[in-house]
């Protein structure tokens, strides 16, 4: 029997106090990780929008949940009568997501270690070195040709008969997720918050949402929040903002000061 010690690995996650509880974060991640390290939150301007539309008892889908930066507050907003269903295909990020739900005593969330798209099968996720600096949440699955396979499915296959709100942030894969969830979206007509930061894919995505019966508005909050949880005045994200669309079905009224999207060729800049 060997007395050699087990291998020890270099730390790549830390736990920090945050606006919505304790959060594990990857210490080498440039955006989500860096934001929790310095500010104890991530893209709080997006959460401010969620608070307008997510209420106790709501059923929410967090598609592209990453480490749960928004899954945790969404679950807190829905309360014990609601539910968040979170999808994250990167195995390590999914593990951190689950840890963050557990450490914050979140009982009303279910997670799936899988990607959503317009077909069933598998897709490839790159094998990343989490001990090296990277933007771990910036992986676009339609660009990956080598890595490890993860399950791929369609939202419609879940047979959901009620959804109130969808947060969709899947790095350029948004159009395929909408295609695979078109029946569910038509049936439930949820409010949606959809990332749209790739200009070459923007027109197709906007036109697709128009075709699903939605009105759209740009929402582009800066990553830096001067009123951040840790009270840190240093902006490590100068000039960087998230590019998202608020989508409301045309049969639902909405008064907002956000910039409307009137044509598929509209762009936020």
What would you say this structure looks like, in words?
This protein is an alpha/beta fold and 269 residues long. It has one domain (42-261): Vaccinia Virus protein VP39 (Rossmann fold, 3-Layer(aba) Sandwich), CATH 3.40.50. It has seven helices and 13 strands. A hairpin with a 2-residue loop joins strand 1 and strand 2.
List keywords for this structure.
single chain; Rossmann fold; 7 helices; 3-stranded mixed β-sheet; 8-stranded mixed β-sheet; 13 strands; 269 residues; alpha/beta
Break the fold down into its secondary structure elements and pairings.
Layout: E1 13-18, E2 21-26, H1 32-39, H2 44-53, E3 59-63, H3 71-78, E4 83-87, H4 91-103, E5 109-112, E6 115-116, E7 121-125, E8 148-153, E9 165-168, H5 174-180, H6 182-188, E10 191-195, H7 199-211, E11 214-219, E12 244-249, E13 259-261
Parallel strand pairs: 3-4, 3-9, 4-5, 6-8, 9-10
Antiparallel strand pairs: 1-2, 7-8, 10-12, 11-12, 11-13
